[in-house]
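WARN retry 2 of 3 for item q-0093 after timeout on previous attempt; input resubmitted unchanged.
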Amino acid sequence: MAGEQAFDSLYSLLAAQRDELIEAWSTETRQVIASASLARAALLDRMPDFVDQIIAALHPEALPLPPASEIAEEHGAQRLGIGFDVSEVIREYGLLQRCILKIAESAALTPNLREQGIIGRWLSTGIADAVAQYVKQRDIETQRQTSEHLGFIAHELRNPLSTARLAFARLQPMAPAEEARWASVLDRNLRRTVDLIDGVLGQASLQLGVEPVIKRLDLKAFLQEIVADAEAESQSRGITVTLSGADGLALDADARLMRSAVSNLLNNALKFSKPQSHIALRVGQSAGRLEIDVLDSCGGLPPGKAEELFKPLVQRGENRSGFGLGLAIALQAVEAHHGTIRVQDRPGDGCVFTIDLPATSQA
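OK item q-0093 returned
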């Protein structure tokens, strides 16, 4: 034991009593912090490895390397999983320091300045890294739960809304001629609500880390359906929407996410294009890439606006309807397919939004 053997350095003392140090720390941690029912392996986690690193750093011939953070980071994430709070993570490193000093005191050994500096540096870095990872994982879990809740609400809203759309489709032909305009307004807003909910569902899936469900899509039929869904809005503003270049092409994609991306770009074009104008969807494939262009007739972008378009809650113009989320959601959906969206300003005419994706084989 310590009282029966003389030690010339803190390194030799801790190397000889490594197991005793870990046992003393686990005993104090269980008494002060952890539940008695917590399994020993879960309590120890990576702390023995962290102790070994401290001992190695104390060796008289050890290089003055910076404290490693990987072990402490993993320890912080594990502590979140078993229910520790941040203050308890900090406290257990303080308990380790106290146990080291107790062992040194029982051996009548006073750590020199070098040894004190090493211990202090490793413990302070360990605390910082463990807490940083703890907070990071906690924030990720909070976001996951929020997205899951949001996705659940959107899904529950979508079901009765779909039923309402079907019922309206049956009733619309029966409406008197003088009510046709109001029926068109109702139909348009039902479609907008469905698009919004689909966007929320897509965004929630991405934030939850759900892998896209990739299926082969006939690109022309896929885009024609999106154009048809936007027909009520385009007709109400006298805007012509055309589709070209999609013949014979296929797209491997998650249909819901990609529909959200293209629909948001098309809805954005309809929102800002001038009445009685033209919107074009063009599809092209070259050099291993597939591009879907949406050309609008908005008249061009204000100076410096292109850099802000894909930021959430940033709106494109003076029209303040909506929440400024459409382009941000579209970009997230495309990035989930290893693609991107870029915008080209055509001053005095409009903009070209391009979805750029890895190309797939022809159908």
